[in-house]
Design a protein that fits this description.
Blueprint lengths: L3 E4 L2 E4 L4 E7 L8 E7 L6 E7 L4 E3 L7 E6 L4 E6 L8 E8 L4 E3 L3 E6 L1
Parallel strand pairs: 2-11
Antiparallel strand pairs: 1-3, 3-8, 4-5, 4-9, 5-6, 7-8, 9-10, 9-11
């Protein structure tokens, strides 16, 4: 089975930065889209950023200009660089890998931004 393992979460102060990693058990080139989602307390899971096989990216309005999604196909890893973090960014961040029909989720990594 496909496994996705997130890492890099932690506690940072407002304005700080974190880099999340999502390591896949297989080639990330086989996925139509790779993405990062987050779920804050009391809220629904939401898309943060995504990247397609062709390299096109998409970002939530709330993170536009602050977050950057990237990938390293040789390492089968997708990254989320998070800068200028705000308390409202506090959430569990999940990695997602999607083919045409099949989709996979990681276990999540906690990001906490203190005020």
């Amino acid at each position: 089975q496909v496994q996705l393992v997130e890492s890099g979460g932690g506690l940072v102060q407002t304005g700080g930065s974190l880099r999340l990693s999502c390591a896949a058990s297989g080639s990330i080139s086989s996925f139509r889209t790779m993405g990062w989602y987050r779920q804050a307390p009391g809220k629904q899971r939401e898309l943060v950023a995504s990247i397609t096989q062709a390299g096109s990216t998409n970002y939530a309005d709330s993170v536009q200009g602050r977050f950057t999604i990237s990938r390293d196909n040789a390492k089968n890893t997708v990254y989320l660089q998070m800068n200028s973090l705000k308390p409202e960014d506090t959430a569990i961040y999940y990695c997602n890998a999607q083919r045409w029909v099949e989709g996979y989720w990681g276990q999540g990594t906690q990001v906490t931004v203190s005020s």
